[in-house]
Amino acid sequence: MTKAATNFLPAQPNNNHCRFNRSTLLDPGSAKLQLTPSPSDSDFIDASKVRQMIHFKGYFRGSLNSWGSALDGVIHRDITISALGGLVCHLSRLMLHDVLSNGEILPYQVYKVCLRMDGQTLVNLEIFTNNVDGGSTGTLYKYLDNCVTSSGKRLLRSWICHPLKEVGEINNRLNVVEELMKHSDITLVVTQCVRKLPDLERLLGRVKSIVRSSASLLLPLLGTKLVKQRIKAFGSLVKGMRIGLDLLMILQQKERDMSALLNYLVVPPLCGSNGLDEHLTQFEAAVDSDFPKFQDHHVSDCDAEILAVLIELFVEKAILWSQVIDALICIDVLRSFGVTANSSCGSMCRPVLLPVNSGPIVSCQERGPTLSIKGLWHPYAFGETVGEVIPNDLHLGEDADRSCPLILAQLVCFVPGETCILSPVDTIFTRLGATDRIMTGERYLIECMETASVLRNATDDSLVILDELGRGTSTFDGYAIPYAVFRHLVEKVHCRLLFATHYHSLTKEFSSHPHVSLQHTACSFKPNTSKSLFNDQELVFLYRLTFGALKIWITSGSNGRDTRKTSQSCIKSWSSDESICCRKLQVE
Questions:
Q1: Which of 23, 166, 457, 495 is deepest in the core (most CB within 10 A)?
Q2: Which GO terms describe its molecular function (predicted)?
Q3: pTM for this entry
Q4: Together in a domain, 66 and 179
Q5: How far apart are CA 574 and CA 576, in angstroms?
């Protein structure tokens, strides 16, 4: 089978021979799924035969260690290896032997070093899409996105999904952001250079795929148009790498001012006889001499051969080029964090990260999970509020929600507030109910499943947000659910918890609990100047978090609408070493 046939094999699969009835999968907000049926069960062979096949054919030589070591932590190891065998057989049918030979298998250890948020949490907290129209307006991603490159925007999304939880790594990034904020002149130069960069990450991937697929094919098989496209891609990559190397060398000359950035980045040697600068100069000369004005240039077999040789030589140092590209993308994202902090209308502070000590507090020196913010304000408050923005103080922890400041801090961003002290969170759990599909009749089931996940997986370093748990049930039957969940999280799990409820008796039940504090959003009444027929007093929201449960009262001129508007209360509880805040106590 020639390499030309390989290019035609990865086509859309034929679904006429499916062994099962294919049904349309509908998932709101998700991309359409493409089902690729397996031709037979023979692909999923025994685990021992998979090991023999991989060893005999020399697959996964790109792995630094033995490919099997990546599966050491897998519980059902033999089943996993059998599934790997199915993947190997599928790629073999597509004639992608180069992918199998040069591929690598790595252990999936993402959440060992980062904060964990599941898909429902990302939706509930409006991280990427809002709950109004599904757009990005008002989201955390929109607030932080000041990146000027496509690859930087992709890395920003990845960082938001996986905030750090190692204190040392967080502080290293914060040092870089603070350094970029302090030296605005250097940041301006960085912005001007980064703005000129093409999508180097994808260009390098495209060039590497040329080597793996059909770089050695001659013009009759490739065609003039395809060769010109490859020349253009390679030329853009070389020119973009020149801009990137020049920027990195400028930063190295500013070592005294950019020491934190240079220490954080992993950059290969740029200057000297073995530096990348000299190698890149040779490729620039080759591209300029062999492919001048390639759009109007007649492409020959010789040009295709020269291009194949140049690309093969360039890809030999693909690891070093990737390190340079990763450094440039990192600079774009960290610069974006600095721009966000400098352009904010309110006060911004650098968060202080405390080391995590598991278990209950033994002494004052051994602190438990903490989140303490003074003068906290919402990032979008100035853009959407006509009046004065009122900041609030939050204390979740030993000394004493909002999940947004916590995510910002572990994203190594500055936090909107005067001071911020916290210990890293390992997981954020949410149960808000705003996205429940009520008409399906599965609201209670979804609520129980999400709550069960919290009870099974939450730790003392987690942040749990529960809003009006049990509202899908009757008044008295549903009271047992929030009571049991709240008590378990307070007295057993010891996590930082934001718990909102419409059960007034729950506030009375825990009013004297040593680890529970009640809070509500303050409000007051003033004489009604609109001369309403129904009430002579006007409700005024003070937007100030106040200690104590909200006392519900009915004035002579109040009506049900005003009573509902005043019913915003907050329970804040902490279990030995942290607080649990419960807001919006709504009158039923």
A1: 495
A2: ATP binding; ATP-dependent DNA damage sensor activity; mismatched DNA binding
A3: 0.78
A4: no
A5: 6
